[in-house]
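Dear Dr. H.,

I hope your travels went smoothly. While you were away I took the liberty of generating a structure for the chain from your last submission, since the lab meeting agenda had it listed for discussion. I wanted you to have the full record in hand beforehand rather than looking at slides cold. The sequence, exactly as received, is reproduced here:
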Amino acid sequence: MDLFKKKWKHFGIKQINDFLTYFNNQWCKSNNGWLEKYSVGIQSTSNALESFHDKIKKDLKDKRFGIIEFLNECESNLIHRWSTRKSPTLTLIRDGESVITDNLNIKTFDNEPFISSNDYTEAYKWNRLNKSIIVYNDQLFMPDGKKKTLSKEDCKLYLEELQQKNWSSFDMMIEFLDSIHIVSLNKENWKLSICSCSFWLKNLHCSHVISCAYRSKLCSFDSIGMNLPIERNKKRGPQSETANAYNKQPGENDKDDELILPVTKKSKVKSSQERQDQQVCPKCNTPMLKRRYWYCENKC
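The corresponding predicted structure, in token form, is as follows:
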């Protein structure tokens, strides 16, 4: 927080200083549990609670009850209905007899993060970058950004600097924290693995975790095979980026100093069309111009 205040107090604007004072008193001293990494694995928003509250209002048809009436209504209607939705089996009465059947419309509780096919696709793209993953202190270290290689010495220095916290600015701290990602891989259930990146802190899964699980042979990308773009085969001959290397340079030809370019079919067609399109004035023998019709610029 000191580096954050140092960064913004540098501008010397009163409104910013007032906000920093409010932010420090309200969210750093009074309510300091708002950080994503404050309690890992626990939801940081009240979205589920608000959704639960909305279902109560719909089931009660927005009626207002006293506390006793509300509890009686919950016991007689809400709890029974919700318990049947979450129950794996249902007890039905057929021909006067109770029959236990499977609940096909069960709403299950998720005990692990849900990973969609899009998440697998993004992890596949990240894995194709061929970045090195180093095992150090039973953790997996991988570089971020354009850097692809990493050594155990880099991992050691990263952990030492992380403990020392000798950063002179807020931007330097953020850049350092994002330079290397650390994954604690859970081999029993790789979906419960932990990563130090900001995306994992918000979604409890990321491309780094999926890629580490793939390289450890704990998962595969077979399920997203149809979602990957099909790359066309490489054509024969030189590539377009290096085709100019086959052209002769000035001085290589004794007769002419001009570049000798290979004549392609398209250039032949263009040259023949240009010859047909050009006309010469029969009187002054100058090239004629064309708008709607051919005319001579000398007005012959």
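Two observations you may find useful: The first strand starts at residue 89 and ends at 94. The first helix runs from residue 2 to 9.

With kind regards,
E. W.
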